[in-house]
Write a structure and sequence with these properties.
The complex is a heterodimer of chains A (318) and B (147). By secondary structure, chain A is of the alpha/beta class. Chain A has helices at residues 6-12, 31-40, 61-70, 86-98, 128-139, 168-181, 194-206, 209-212, 225-234, 242-250, 254-270, 289-295, and strands at residues 17-22, 46-49, 75-79, 103-106, 156-161, 185-190, 214-219, 275-280. In chain A, helix 5 (128-139) links the parallel strand 4 (103-106) and strand 5. The longest helix of chain A has 17 residues, at 254-270. The relative contact order of chain B is 0.19. The chains are: A alpha/beta (318), B mainly alpha (147). The A-B interface holds A 81-82, 86, 108-111, 113, 122, 124-130, 133-134, 144, 160-162, 165-167, 169-171, 173-174, 176-177, 180-181, 189, 236-237, 239 and B 56-69, 71, 74-75, 77, 83-84, 87-88, 96, 99-100, 102-106, 108. The complex binds iron/sulfur cluster (SF4) (2 copies).
C-alpha cells in the first residue's frame, strides 16, 4: 500500500475498478464541478480531472480535484509537463497532497498548438517518464535535486499508454520504462479497435507487465458517426475501424447505438485477463456515466476495506 | 572519462577562443548530419544516431501517444515522428536494446555548450558504443562556462 487512496485499496483487493473523467469548467465557478459529481458519486471509484486538455485553458486540475473531494468523489489529478517546469511541478504536487489529493496521473501533455493558445511557450522541462520518476522519488522522501523532503507525500502514481499508436514494440518499451520509473497504474486511450487492443494486451502479458502494474483501459461513448470520423481524421494516435463507423452510420438511433457499443466493449474488457479496470471518458457527456456503469453490470460499486484489512498478498507493487 | 580527457576539457574550457572553435566544429558536424539542437548532453548513441531533441516535445524517453499510423508526427503531419525514425533505424542497426535506457532530465545548464567537452569532463555519460549499457553514477560537476 502506498497512498491508501480508495482507488489503490480497491485495486489491491482485486476489485475491477471503474474510473470516470471530467473536464474542469472554462469559467471561474465551482458549481459545474459539484453538479457533475452527482453523475459519479456511487457510480465510479475515482474521477480523472484533466489538466488543460488539448491545450485549452480551463480551471486548474489541482483546484478542480479539490472541489471533487468536496463533492464526495475521489479525484485522479492529471499533471502534464507542457505548462510547468520541474520546480512548479514539485511544488504543485506538495500542495496537492496537502489538500487531500492522493492519485496523480503523469502525462507529457498535448502540444500547445492544438488548443486556443497556439502561440504559447511549451515547457516540456521533464517528460512523462521523468515526471513519474520524480513523483516516485518524492514518495521516497527526495526531491529531484536530491534534497530531503519531510514529510514526504504518498501518491498513487499513474501513467498513460496508447495501445493504438505505432510502433507496437516501442510502446511496450515505453511502458516498461514507466514501470521501472515507479508507476503504479496505467490508463489507456479508448478502445474502438479491438483486434489492435488484443495485440497490445497480449504483448503486455508476454513481458509480464500486467503483473507489475494495474492496467485500466479506456472506453468512450460516442453520439454519432461524425464524432468517430472526426476522431479518426483529426485526433492523432487513434485507431477507429471501419466497422465501427458503419455500425454507427446504419443505426436508427446513433446515440443508443453508441451507448450499446460502449457497454459491449466494457463487458468484453471485464473478461479480458490482465485488465484491472475501466476508464470511461465521455467527452462533455458526463451525464451518461451512471447508465453505462449500470448496463455493463458493474453496480453496485464495492466499498474498499480499511487499510489494515487489505491483505498484503494482493499488493503487487509496494 | 579519464584523467587525460578531463585535462583536455579543463584546458579547452579555460580558453574561450579554443572552446568556441571546438563548439563550432561540433556544431558544424552534428547540426549538419543529425540536426543537433544543442542540448549539450548527447544521447545520439543510445538513439541509433537520430537526435531526439528534434521532437517538438523534446521527448527523451520514447514517443508520445500521438504518433500517426503512417509514422508522422502529431504536431507536424508532414514530418516524420522522430521516435518512429529512431525505432526504425535502431531495428535496422540491431541496437533496439539501447532504447530501454532511462534518460534523466536534461540539465538545462549544459544547453548550448559542447557535448564533447562535457563528456570529456565527465559531466555526462560517455558514448558507450561497444560495451553493454550499465548504470553509471556521475559525480556532480560544475557546468562549463558559456563563453
Ligand atoms: S547534443 Fe543533444 S541536441 Fe545535439 S545531437 Fe546530441 S542529443 Fe541531439
Ligand atoms: S509524434 Fe513523435 S515527434 Fe511528434 S511530438 Fe510525438 S514523439 Fe515527438
Amino acid at each position: 500500500m502506498v497512498s491508501g487512496s480508495r482507488l489503490e485499496r480497491l485495486l489491491r483487493q482485486g476489485e475491477f475498478v471503474v474510473c470516470g473523467e471530467m473536464s474542469p469548467p472554462q469559467g471561474a465557478d465551482k458549481a459545474p464541478i459539484l453538479k457533475k459529481c452527482e453523475y459519479f458519486r456511487g457510480y465510479v471509484d475515482a474521477v480523472n480531472l484533466t489538466d488543460n486538455q488539448t491545450a485549452i485553458v480551463r480551471m486548474s486540475s489541482i483546484v478542480s480535484s479539490f472541489f471533487v473531494l468536496e463533492g464526495g468523489c475521489e479525484p485522479i489529478m492529471q499533471m502534464t509537463c507542457r505548462d510547468r517546469n520541474r520546480l512548479a511541478q514539485q511544488s504543485d504536487l506538495l500542495g496537492a497532497y496537502a489538500i487531500g489529493i492522493r492519485n496523480v496521473l503523469c502525462l507529457t501533455g498535448d502540444y500547445q498548438t492544438f488548443g486556443n493558445q497556439g502561440d504559447a511557450k511549451g515547457v516540456f522541462d521533464l517528460d512523462s517518464v521523468q515526471l513519474i520518476h520524480t513523483v516516485a522519488d518524492m514518495n521516497r522522501g527526495r526531491l529531484l535535486s536530491g534534497d530531503e523532503l519531510k514529510p514526504p507525500p504518498a501518491f498513487f502514481i499513474g501513467g498513460a499508454a496508447n495501445p493504438f499508436a505505432e510502433p507496437l514494440e516501442m510502446r511496450i518499451i515505453r511502458l516498461e520504462k514507466k514501470v521501472a520509473a515507479g508507476v503504479h497504474f496505467i490508463q489507456t486511450q479508448p478502445v474502438f479497435d479491438w483486434s489492435r487492443f488484443e495485440k497490445w494486451m497480449s504483448a503486455v502479458r508476454d513481458v509480464g507487465l500486467d503483473e507489475k502494474v494495474f492496467i485500466i483501459v479506456g472506453v468512450m461513448p460516442v453520439r454519432s458517426a461524425k464524432a468517430l470520423l472526426y476522431m479518426r481524421d483529426e485526433v492523432p494516435g487513434m485507431s477507429i475501424p471501419d466497422e465501427c463507423i458503419k455500425r454507427m452510420e446504419s443505426a436508427q438511433d446513433p446515440k443508443e447505438e453508441g451507448i450499446r457499443m460502449c457497454v459491449e466493449t466494457m463487458q468484453r474488457l471485464r473478461n479480458t485477463p490482465g485488465v484491472r479496470g475501466i476508464h470511461i471518458m465521455p467527452v462533455m457527456w458526463e451525464s451518461i456515466t451512471p447508465r453505462l456503469v449500470e448496463e455493463a453490470g458493474l453496480l453496485p460499486r464495492p466499498e474498499p476495506l480499511s487499510i489494515e484489512e487489505t491483505s498484503p498478498e494482493t499488493a503487487e507493487t509496494s | 572519462m579519464s584523467k587525460f580527457t578531463e585535462a583536455i576539457a579543463e584546458f579547452t574550457e579555460k580558453h574561450p577562443t579554443l572552446y568556441r572553435c571546438v563548439l563550432l566544429g561540433e556544431n558544424m558536424f552534428k547540426k549538419a548530419i543529425f540536426g543537433c539542437q544543442d542540448c549539450g548532453q548527447c544521447v545520439l548513441s543510445y538513439n541509433a544516431f537520430v537526435c531526439c531533441m528534434r521532437c517538438p516535445k523534446q521527448m527523451r524517453n520514447g514517443p508520445c501517444g500521438g504518433t500517426r499510423a503512417n509514422g508522422r508526427c502529431e504536431v507536424y503531419p508532414n514530418r516524420p515522428c522522430i521516435w518512429w525514425l529512431i525505432y526504425k533505424r535502431a531495428k535496422w542497426m540491431g541496437r533496439a536494446a539501447k532504447l530501454k535506457k532511462y534518460h534523466v532530465p536534461v540539465d538545462r545548464r549544459l544547453e548550448h555548450t559542447s557535448a564533447w567537452m562535457n563528456m570529456f569532463a565527465g559531466r555526462i555519460l560517455p558514448l558507450d558504443l561497444s560495451k553493454e549499457l550499465r548504470e553509471i553514477e556521475l559525480p556532480k560537476k560544475e557546468p562549463p562556462p558559456k563563453w
